[in-house]
Every structure is written in C-alpha cells, then in structure tokens.
Amino acid sequence: MRYRSQSIAYWYFAVAMCLFGLQLVFGLLTASKYLGPDPLLNFLPFDKTKAIHTNLLIVWVLTGFMGATYYVVPEESRSEIYSVKLGYIQLIAWTLMGVTAVVGYMFGWTAGNKMLEQPFPLKIVVVIVMLMFLYNILMTIKRAGRWTVTEGVLVAGLAFAAILYLPALIEYENYTVSIFYRWWTIHLWVEGVWEMIQGGLLAYLLIRLSGADREVMEKWLYVIVGLVFMAGILGTAHHYYWVGVPHYWLPIGGFFSALEPVALLGMAMYAYFAMRRAGFSHPNSLAVHWTIGSTVFTVFGAGLLGFAHTWPSVNKWTHGTLITAMHGHGAFYGAYAMTVLAMISYTLPHLTSDRKVEGSSIGYWAFWMQVMGMFGMTLSFGTAGIGQVYLERILGLGYLDTQLKLQVHFLMLIATASVFATGAALFIWNFFRTAPRSVAAIDSSTSAPDLAPAGHANSAVSG
Amino acid sequence: MTKRQGRLFFIICTLISATVFIGLTFDSHRRFPGLTNEDKLTPEIIRGKDVWHNNNCINCHTLLGEGGYYAPDLTKITQQRGTPYLTAFLKDPSQFYSEEKHRRLMPNPKLSDAEISEVIAFLDWVGHIDNQGWPPRPIIVSGTTIPGTDVGQPPTHASVSTDPVAQGEALFRSSPPACNACHSIASGANLAGPTLAGLATRAAAIIASPEYKGEAKTPTDYIRESITHPSAYLVPGAMYSANSQSFMPDNFAADLEPQQIDSLVAYLETLK
C-alpha cells in the first residue's frame, strides 16, 4: 500500500463483511421456511426475510465495489483520495441507509418491488451517496491528472450503475411498464455495468497478481466489456418473456442471451491466459484462487446456469420456478461476491497488520467450503426446480402439493448452505482476526509486494 | 489488434446494442396500451397495484412469473377462482389451507374490504394482459389434475368428436375458467371446489335431502343448475361458500352456449 488514503478501503470491506454475514443469517432463515411450519409466520414471514436477504446482498456487494475502488484509484492515478473525510461520511450514510432498510423491512416499510424494495426516501439517500462517491473519485482522478483504462472501466461501471438506478425512482401505473423499467436497473446492473466493474477489478488483479503486460490486458479488457455490452444490453430481453411486451423480445432474448456465456467465457480465458503467459509470480496465491475462481464460477453460475433456461421455448416451462433461484445464486456469487472477496483477499495483507501475504490455511478452507457449498446449493435449487417444472408445470400437480414433494431438495439446500455459511464465517473471522494497519505503519512501509516489478514480487515480500 | 482497435470495438458494440435497445423501447411503448388493455386501467386497479406492493406480495408469490417462488403464481388466479372465493381467502387464508399439511401458509395480510376488492381488480387486470399465452397450461394452486385426466394434454376444444360427452370433457378442461382448475374427478381429492367423483350418484341423494332448496327434480337438472346457478345448493364447508354465496364463478350461464352446457352436463352425468 503506497497511499495512506487507501486505508479507507479497509472500513468499506469491514462493513461489507458484516453485511455479508447478516445476509447469510437471513438466507438460512429463509431456506428453513421451505421445510415449515414457520414459527415466525406472523412476525418475520418468508417475504420479509427474503427481501432482507437479497437487499443485503446488493448493499454489501456495492460496499465492496466502492471499497475496492478507493483502493484501486490511488494506485492507478498515483494520488491520495481527494477527500478522505467525504469517503468516511459516505460510508456512514450508506451503512445507515442499509441498516434502516433492513429494520424497515422487518416492520413492513417497503416499496414491495422485487430487488428495489427500498422505500422512496432511502432510494434518494442511495442516489446522494453514489453522487458523493463519484464526486470523490472523479476529483481524485482530475487532481492527479492521470488515469488508466483499468480504473476508467471500473469508475465508468460505477457511474453507469448510479445512472441506471434512476428509472427505479419513478412510479409507473402500468404494471408491465413497471416490470419493463425494473429490469433496466436490475438486469443492466448485473449483466451490464456490474460486469464492467468486475472486468475492471479483474484486470487490476491480474496485472498485479500475474505481472501481465498492462497494454495487452487493457486491450482485451475493452474487447471483453464490448462483448458483455453487445450481449448484455439486448439480453435484457430475456426478462421480457411473458410479461406483456411485444412478441419480438422473445427471439431477441433467445439470441443475445445465448451470446452472454460467450462473453463470460471470454473473461475466464482472459484470466487464464494472463496467468499462463505471465505465471503465478505473486506470493498471494489465495487471492489468485479467488480471482481465477471468480471467473470460472461466473461461467458456471451466470453463463451456463443462465443459458440453461433462457431459450424461450424452455423458459415457457421454467419461468417463475426454483430454476431461477438456482441461476440467481450461482450468478451473483460467482460474478460479484467472489470478485469482492478476491479484492479483499488481495488487499488484506496490505490493509491489516501481522498477516502473511500468501494467506493462511483458514483462508483456503474459507475458499473451498464456500465454493463447494455454493455449488451444492445451485444443485439443490436446480434439482428442486426440475422436479417443480415436471410435476407442476407439465403434469399439472398443484403448486402446494408439488412443493411438498420437493422437501428432500430443501433439506439438501440447507445442508449445502450450512457448508457455505461455515466457509463464509471463516472468511469473515479471518478478515477481523488482525487489526487494521495504523497510519504510522503505512508510512513506514516503503515497499509493498504489489509495487514490485513483475517477476520480482517474491524478493520484495521480505522488504 | 491494438488497444485503439479494442476501444473502437467496445464503443461500436455498445452503441449498436444501445441504439437498437432504445429503438425497441420506443416501439414497446407504442404497443403497451394495446397489449395491457391500458384503457381499462381504472383508479381502483392502480390502488390495487399499490396494495400489491405495500404488502410485499411479490416476495412470496409470482405474478407474470416474476417474484419469490415461495407461493403460487397469481397471473390467472381470478380466472380460476371467483371474486367471492378470493375475498374470503384474503380475509383469512388459514381457513383455506393448513400449515400442518402444506408446511407453509400465507400470513393474514389484514386488508380492509376496499383493499381486498382493489387488489382483486388489479389481479384481474393483470390476468388479461396479452403475454404470449403464458402459462402454457394452467398453474394450479393445490390438489392435482393428474388422476383421471389426460396427463400432459393441454386444454383443448373437442374438435375430433361430435359426441357430447367428449365435447363436455374437453370443456371441463377448457371452459373459461376451466372446471378442473378447482374440481378434480378423483375420489376424495378436494381442490378449491369439492371433488366431482360420483357426482351423478350424489346428486340424487342431495335432491332427496331436506337441506336442498333448489328447483331440480332429477340429477341431470341438478348438475345443470349447479353450473348455471352455483349458489342454489351449497356444499358444506367454509372454503366453498360464505354468506349463502358459492365461491364458484357464476359466469357460465352467460358465457357458454346452451349446447355447450348440454355437453358439459352429459359429461358430468357419466361421473357415477
């Protein structure tokens, strides 16, 4: 870590870790309701715990993205953050917004629009916080007078994310129109600009971890983001199946969604070839695990599991079943949760004291338990979803009776989710295990491993 | 390829996709009023949409297939269950389903009478949106249509046969709303409506019983009366009726041709 103000990132990551833990508590609670009966039916029924579970995900991942940006931008622009104070005020406002939303949902304060449940005043806070953040970052870059493609892609992704939140502020009288614009926010986030953020962070990590040539990496970053947008923007159409929009969205959705895995595969190949060409020269092999793991899991969860039910003639039967939950879990975890965890794993030896660069065995346990647990969870949702499609949609068994026949899959879900949650708990514990570096310690550390020239990282660790 | 070419590729891809997407968005707006019957979007329906949102319904149910996957899809619910049924259900879901049996239950949303009728109006409006004919076959809330039906065969009008019983059976699976959305023909399988297994035999017993106040004299008349005037005789049970009114939709006398009702009666008479 070369710049003092990069330490803001630690506090963003710390908040993200707390919210991640809370997300899993609500996730397990929600999953247990599949087994029923539910003793909390009248206080905390499924709809509330599920809304809290998904909202916490969005908030902690965005917190992680912002923290990562505060770490990346000073290094790329070679400057301290414009205003450290603003960075902390922003974090406090953001956290208060998140906590208020969660407590509000418990007491029925909700906009009741899937993923955009935040009540209107909180949506305004989100916009204000995003503006504060973008102002701080852009002023840093402006003052430094230097920017790289890597940070440009990252910051542009965050700026677009803020812009695409705006349609969510408008109320629509026509439910179909409301659905139409809800996906402008949610889909164009997760299959558009968030992938841009992921691409930017991935390029940063690969340049640092493999010592790959920046020119080459940034050239391909453009190509990958181009592919993502080409498939992702028109791929929005796969959310426009069966909701009351013109018919032509069906073939468009089928075709462009089929291209999306190609873009994601491109991202995985990008990571693989960077590592193969330049070698695993960096000592932080735990961060390498998370980085490569993220791209592989993205191909699986977002690419393959999405493609499995995105063709209109298939989706006609799977639409609105647990098949969607299968894809949702795999995609969000692989593409976004793992990207943030990769950034945290990479930065942690710099942000905290008394920590080995190569990571500890707890770190590896955390990685493998999460990956295996999430793989099992997607299989549980997937098998439950296939059973649901055949029994309910094709044979015509009633919804409630079908769900009763899926109990064994829900048991499997809870078992694998417990493995996942244990892995996540280890990660969180590992994060908080050592104290953050003090400013004095940062000043005295003249050479950090990530600043070493490619291929010489090992020799710099001891410095 | 150079970095410059890479950037050009990114810009061109993004511009083309975004332009096409925005163009189609404009065209969709042109088509929304027709596809969604926007002319029928009354203030009551819009208030119903607010009830739907305020109660976070979407985080359990799905509507147009979008939502929480934890409770039944409600896209066509008003075509499967009449307003009296839905009203009574929303007043107290626990009267209709058992958490012990189904392992999940809808918490009482504690809606006012006005809110209930508004949200039903909203759901009815959603049910008539032109959404490319989804779902491809009805999604049923509870029970089963498997015993005694042609498994996997979609609802269809009997074009293959002129036999009234065959036509009646096809109507049973298709007449709006389909009878088999609420009635099974398997013994003991009560869905939203009572099973129709052995209907013809039971009809004779019902007519003879002192509780029967209708006008039918024969089992055939009784079946016809049950279709055209569902409240003439009420099968006991809080899940079937309230305030002397059956939850069964009463649109059949108006919406079916007399000859179609004849076919339906002919079919139901065979259930002995």
What does this structure look like?
The complex is a heterodimer of chains A (463) and B (272). Helices cover 75% and strands 0% of the residues of chain A. Chain A has 16 helices and no strands. In chain B, 39% of the residues are buried. Chain B has helices spanning 3-35, 43-54, 77-80, 83-91, 99-102, 113-127, 164-174, 199-208, 219-228, 252-255, 258-268, and strands at residues 62-63, 66-67, 241-242, 245-246. Chain B has a two-stranded antiparallel sheet. In chain B, strands 3-4 form a two-stranded antiparallel sheet. Chain B has 11 helices and 4 strands. With 272 residues, chain B is mainly α. In chain B, α2 (43-54) packs across α6 (113-127), α4 (83-91) crosses α6 (113-127) and α9 (219-228) packs across α11. Chain B has 2 domains: 37-140, Orthogonal Bundle (Cytochrome Bc1 Complex, Chain D, domain 2); 164-268, Orthogonal Bundle (Cytochrome Bc1 Complex, Chain D, domain 2). The interface between A and B is large, with 78 and 83 residues.
Summarize the structure.
With 463 residues, chain A is mainly α.
Topology diagram in text:
The complex is a heterodimer of chains A (463) and B (272).
Chain A: H1 8-32, H2 46-77, H3 84-106, H4 120-144, H5 149-165, H6 175-210, H7 214-235, H8 249-278, H9 285-307, H10 312-318, H11 322-351, H12 361-395, H13 399-405, H14 407-432, H15 439-444, H16 457-461
Helix pairs in contact in A: 1-2, 1-3, 1-14, 2-3, 2-4, 2-5, 2-11, 3-4, 4-5, 5-6, 6-7, 6-8, 6-9, 6-11, 7-8, 8-9, 9-11, 9-12, 11-12, 12-13, 12-14
Chain B: H1 3-35, H2 43-54, E1 62-63, E2 66-67, H3 77-80, H4 83-91, H5 99-102, H6 113-127, H7 164-174, H8 199-208, H9 219-228, E3 241-242, E4 245-246, H10 252-255, H11 258-268
Antiparallel strand pairs in B: 1-2, 3-4
Helix pairs in contact in B: 2-6, 4-6, 7-11, 8-9, 9-11
